[in-house]
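Data availability excerpt. The first of two example chains:
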Amino acid sequence: MSNMTPKDSDIQLMAIVNLTDDSFYSGSRTVRDGLVDLELVRARVAAALREGAAIVDLGASSSRPGSVPVGEKVETDRLEPVLEILSKEFPDTCFSVDTTRAKVVESAYRYLGNRLIVNDISSGEDDPEMLPLVGELGLRFVAMHGWDPSKFSEGDVVGRVAAYFREFGRKAAESGIADWILDPGFGFSKTVEENWELLGRLSELKSFGRPILVGISRKSMLYKPLGLGPEDVLEETCRANRTALDGGASILRVHDVKPAYNLLEQYEN
């Protein structure tokens, strides 16, 4: 099964598959009556890869605004049966695990090895064991801005984001993390206006020399100004992703892989 983006592009699609019952976009949920629907997850992963995803992002604890994170045991109990199946059925696929817990990374690594990418929205701030573990295992790491709004609160949004990643770069080096991805954190600790300013000035973050991951799929910066909901803004998502590509994004994290794939084909022609 192919998981290449158009023309073997350097731009990759990361497909969102949520092992939750409360993620902000209802169409991404796969937990029914407290249990992960394994057949539904398998089908969504297969479809995402068939439609052009290069990475599948698995999240077993919602990070939507106002959500209450599940405990470590619940997160692991949701994730492990999924990884047992997916690691065997899709042996050539890279999976990212959306977690802030080092123990969850340890568990996922047993199934995926170096196919695992750690996607930590706290950039290692929630769990002091996270960055040393990622460095020890030699894994790729997605660091996101915006988890702690008190950090670098002065200046405009791009300046705050840049200051944050300058500090993170030092911490990553100290922990032995050589391969990390920069996620500006759209929707986290930013107003709608700041999110749009950040998107329009995304190219300023290319100076870090890191892959830039943009996750704006169906987010409130798109639907709130229009008085809509996340289910109603697929076209707006595609337009915003086009702006992200113009600004230097190299990974698009999306709910809807096929429209994003079509966007890449148009973008590169």
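And the second chain:
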Amino acid sequence: MKRIGLTQRVEVIADYGERRDCLDQNWIKLFSDLDFMPIVLPNITQPELITRYLDALALDGVVLTGGNDLSQTNSPRAAIERDEFESALINYCCDNNIPVLGVCRGMQMLNLYFGGELQNVSDHVTKNHIVNFTDGQSYSVNSYHDWGIPEHLLSKELFACGHSEDGLVEYCQHKNKPITGIMWHPERFNQDQGISLTIIKETFL
């Protein structure tokens, strides 16, 4: 059974003075149903500990899940510790040829890591819309993001595989590495689940 690492969002619980790592339980069900072993990853920030931790886990793949804005957006919903961990995680995966799937914020993270940029967008929060794939197919997906990637801001190391009808890149892959990004949430079932499952399987099998 392949071991797939899942990153976590950071939630600030002011009443307890805590910053908590957390993950939607649907992620565990989704990957367990696909016969993968989901491994929940904490937001570690010490570089030497990250490497030892990941070496010990021997992951077969990684998902950069959604939630939190990226620090580059200067949003109050950003979590610098998560940015630091996921940046080191992507670097580790690239060095060790480990497949990565970036979901929503995760795709944004991949684009920034490889030198792309983000743009504030409208009409992409809590709604469904069509994504037109470059192979001619179209699918209805969910949408929960107010930062997006127009074609001209996509990293030169990535190529677009699907666009929303307003021209934003919603699905991309790396030109040379086993890295994929999607802007919708496969763990939430209000979308064409079949294409999400296909992309997950193609990424990790």
